[in-house]
Every structure is written in structure tokens, then in C-alpha cells.
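Suppose a colleague, Dr. K., hands you the sequence of a protein chain of 493 amino acids and asks what its three-dimensional shape might be. Before reaching for any lab equipment, you can write down a predicted structure in C-alpha cell form. Begin with the sequence itself:
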Amino acid sequence: MREFSEQELVRRDKLNKIKELGIDPFGHKFEVTDFSLNIKERFQDKTHEELEELHEVVSVAGRIMFIRKMGKASFFTIKDKLGNIQVYISINDVLEETYNLFKSADLGDIVGVKGVVMKTGTGEITIKCLEYTHLVKALKPLPEKFHGLNDVEERYRRRYLDLIVNDEARKIAFARPKIIRSIQQYLDSKGYVEVETPILGTILGGAAAKPFITHHNSQNIDMYLRIATELNLKRLLVGGMDAVYEIGRNFRNEGMDRKHNPEFTSIEVYKAFSDLEGMMDLTEALVGNAAMSLNGTYEVDYLGHHISLAPGFKRVHMVDLIKEVMGIDFFKVKSTEEALDLAKEHGVEVEEHFTYGHVVNAFFEKFVEETIIEPTFVYGHPIEISPLAKKQADDERFTQRFELFILGCEYANAFTELNDPIDQYERFEEQLKEKELGNDEANDMDIDFVEALEYGMPPAGGMGMGIDRLVMLLTGSETIREVILFPTMKPLN
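The predicted structure, expressed as C-alpha cells, is then:
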């Protein structure tokens, strides 16, 4: 049997008294015509006398966050989706039984108010209540200092409470869809088509990551939750959809930290007859446009750094960055043995399947990644770690691939797409060899995708970008859990 606190028992007693008045304690339809922020913006410049003359009637609904009861007249504050607004209620303006109903209200109750806009002596925009409607009785009291709870994870477990009392959490919740809309609107304006592809599949591919595995009962087969949307989107290029994108959830069975959640949102974009340079231009535009749409500026202060997201990001080869930081020129390293010797000399961990390109990438990740502050396109990834990217014509050890790094964190990954079916088949075979050597992030052989390429896929550029990390950057959020409404959490028991 559930046990209730003293406050909860008092609220349940009030609920019964509301029922006795013939009022539904859990509400009904209420006509909302205005929101707090809109009212303040429209009337802030008006004087008290001008507002009296206007006699502007508004109707708002929200949660009571503050009450100051003063006998026959009181003030209270309600919070709606856009913020807070003060309400003045007097027994002279509403029926006595209505005023008594208000006096029984608690913080957290949801109410409706219809009244005229006024300005108090201190200059605060206020609604003078003419009609007060009880909508929902809150049976639990709001936490007084919710944001200051010692167990910060409780904010993420009970996001509904976080949104009620934490204005910053609410701001982020509304910012995220605004950022996504800016991306959609920009791509739509450029002729891209938004599509949907399956989340469940029988082949692991499109990225290097550990999958979640589930089981389809009726077919008695194991299936993967997708780790990327890439291969299906490129099948659409084969089919003649020349510019496509998808914003959706991907799933990777890996660790959780400040930048990683097992379930996350990304966008992948593919454009026929484009290439790596075209994807760089597009990525700059999407990031810059999102910044301007949300904040009205390219300038961002994040993690103690001031950076600009204006188009014109630095573009530099991975090997050149390693040389700049470590003084080692991997262009001059000609064999896997030589690369492994360098790794041993510099304390770089290697795995059994490592060859030349894996070592290059390991050096970059260990010594270079965290040194990149300004938005930088790092291109020229080794072929071993880029099974879906086209080779560089002048040095086939490397591919036409880039990753966008900002403040030591990867935000986007892009290729000039590999459309040679013979080369693609050979790359998949190499991935299978790596899997046999213990690389559990290697791709499977996707023979249907190879056959799709055999019908002919136009030259193309493709790009994938993490939506969650972009939202973190543009809202100043230090952890991915702040920008996902319901992040993955460990069970309490």
C-alpha cells in the first residue's frame, strides 16, 4: 500500500473538497488565446493608463508557481510554455466562492485565467483576473530547489519535473526542434527530399559500431537496430532520387559518457553528382544556418572557448595534422611494420587486426583530436577505416573522407561516396577479415548493396551529422543528457 506525506494527504483532502463543489479536479477544455511571453512583448511599452484604456482581454492557462495571499486580494504567478506571468485576483472582481476556490490552490496546480492586461506600480505586466478556472489538482508538491538536488541524475529520470521548475531545461527542449526545423528548411529549399528508412535490419553496415541485437519471432531470425542509415539512402541514389536526407534515431551498443548515448539522433544527407568539397560546403551552411536560426549569431561560447561557426571552416589532411602535433610524417611511412614500430615507440595501443591505416588513425585520436578547437574539416582518412569512401586518386592508402571537429569533438562525417561495386565488394571482404581477427565493429558483407551499385550509382557526396551534439553546442549544454529529453539511464534497482 502506498504511503503519502503530510502535504500529499492535505492535497488529497482538497481534491475531495473540489469534487464536493461539483468541479472536476482534473479538468476540461479551456480556451487559451495568449501566452505569457507574447503578452509581455505586446504590452511592455504601454503605460498603466494606456492599458486601462485598451482594456485588452486575454485568456491564459498554466501551472501556479508562486502565491502571495493577502486577504481579499492576492497575487500569483503561472507558468505556461513560454514563461511566467503575474496574475492579480480580488474578491471584488470574481465571485466570493471563486476567490475561496483560488485560496485553496497549491503550488503546482494548473489553472485557467481570463482577464485584462494591466501594469502594477512596479511596472510589471500583470493579468487582472475576471474569471478563474480550476483545471488540475497537483497531488504532489513541487520540489523547492529541484535544480540543486545532489542526485543530478534525478533531473533526467524525471524530466517532467525538470521541465516544470528548470527554465534552462525548458529552453533547450524548445531549442532542439527549432534547430532540426532549420536543417529541414534549408535542405528542402535546396531540393533535397526527406525520406524514412528501416530501423530494423538483418545486415550490419553503414558505420563502425557495436549493434543492438533483437529477435523477430515469426521469422525466427536475429535483427539489428540500425547503427546508420547510409546504405539504404545510397540505394535511393541508385533508384534516381538524386538528393535525399533522413533525420532519425540510430542505436549503438557502446558506453555512455558526456558525448555518447546508446540511442541518438543523426542526419544523413546524400547528393548525386557532388563530392567531398560539396559536402564541406553543405555542412558549413547547415551548422551556420542552425546557429543563426537559434541564436541570431555565428558566435558561440562553449566549454570556456569563444568560436565562430561562420562558413569558411579550416580544411586540413589528417596526416598533416599528425605531423604538426607529433613531427611524424605518415606520408613517408611505407609499411605496416614501420607504422607498428612507431606506435610502440610512442605508446599507442594496437589491436591484432591493425595495419598501416589503423595506426595512422590511432595516432590522430590519441594525440591530435583534442587539440582541435576551431571548426576544422579533417580529411584524408585511411582506407582501412573508411570502407564506404572513394579512394584518393594520388594516394590510394587514403580516402576522400572528412570529419568535422569542433573543440576536440567530432560533429560530422562525410565521403565522396564509393560507387565502384568491385572495389566495394573487396572492401567488404576486408571488413570480414577484420571481424575474424576480433574487430566487432567491422561491417558485414551486404551483397544486395553491391548489386545495387552494379546497376550504377551516380558519383555522389554524403554526410552524416550528430543532431544531439549540434544541439549541445548551440545551447551551451555540457552533456548529451541535457539535450535528449529522455536519455538512457541505469535502472534504479
